[in-house]
Design goal:
The complex is a heterodimer. Chain A is mainly α. Chain A contains two helices and no strands. The chains are: A mainly alpha, B mainly alpha.
Chain lengths: ~45, ~220
């Protein structure tokens, strides 16, 4: 049973962290670009 | 090391040193800016004011755009251009967009292939170009943000020196903008050309960017 659970876990890795990092990279880039676009437009 | 940390260590490592470098840049940039301001009696910025300044934003954006331009070009150029012996290149005979079978799309997709790789309409066209499109979009977004922040910083200097301010469109033709743009681009292009050429003859044992140490110099498109 333990071997079955381990094999199943290996076959279906938890992709939550991978997706979080993918989203984090997008968040850093999009927020940085949007923020400094506004800073530039508003003459700060 | 926890399994999830080890599995993400490449991305995590670079995100951490990115954050540390950005903080380092903000402190060094503030002191450099204030020294420059002091030399001609200009306004001194606090740390908080500097973080929301076009001077700091421009310095960040002009480096971001050049990095994403580098990746955009290497992603797109390596579809068609090859370099004999380089790990950055595909095999010489593979130049081009490749067959559906090799790319495992449409009827050649496997059950584990991403859903949009199996599609036969616009979704597949979008998905099979998504990496290049994302990088190109980020490049133009960051370059646009650089142009705006450099423009405001330029006009701030003009005002301090009693000179007339310029419009954004006029600034796009100014040497200031293109000097900042080209000084970042040239370094990226040299680094990519060097990496393509160095990886023919030089090795880094265990690196995904290197061919195996014992691989022949003219072996193209292989890595550890």
């Amino acid at each position: 049973m333990e071997a079955y659970i381990r094999e199943t876990a290996e076959a279906r890795p938890n992709l939550g962290v991978v997706r979080t990092l993918f989203a984090l990279c997008w968040l850093v880039i999009v927020s940085g670009v949007a923020f400094y676009t506004v800073i530039g437009v508003t003459h700060h | 090391m926890r399994p999830w940390v080890k599995e993400q260590s490449l991305t995590l490592f670079f995100l951490v040193i990115f954050a540390l470098s950005l903080v380092g840049q903000s402190f060094a940039g503030l002191h450099d800016f204030n020294e420059e301001q002091a030399s001609h009696g200009g306004e001194q910025y606090s740390y908080g004011r500097f973080l929301v300044s076009s001077e700091f934003g421009g310095d960040v954006m002009e480096n971001w755009q050049s990095e994403f331009l580098q990746f955009s070009l290497i992603i797109l150029a390596t579809v068609w251009f090859v370099q004999r012996g380089s790990t950055e290149s595909k095999k010489l005979e593979d130049a081009g967009r490749e067959s559906d079978a090799k790319e495992r799309v449409g009827e050649h997709a496997s059950p584990k292939s991403p859903r949009w790789a199996k599609a036969k309409d616009w979704r597949r066209t979008l998905y099979e170009n998504s990496l290049g499109l994302a990088m190109v979009a980020i490049f133009f977004g960051t370059w646009f943000a650089q142009s705006l922040t450099n423009w405001t910083a330029y006009n701030n200097r003009q005002t301090e020196h009693g000179e007339p301010v310029v419009t954004w469109v006029s600034f796009l033709g100014r040497p200031d903008f293109w000097n900042r743009t080209f000084q970042n681009w040239q370094s990226e292009f040299l680094a990519v050309a060097t990496m393509a050429a160095f990886s023919i003859y030089l090795r880094q044992r265990g690196s995904a960017e290197s061919k195996p140490v014992g691989a022949p110099d003219d072996e193209t498109g292989s890595s550890s």
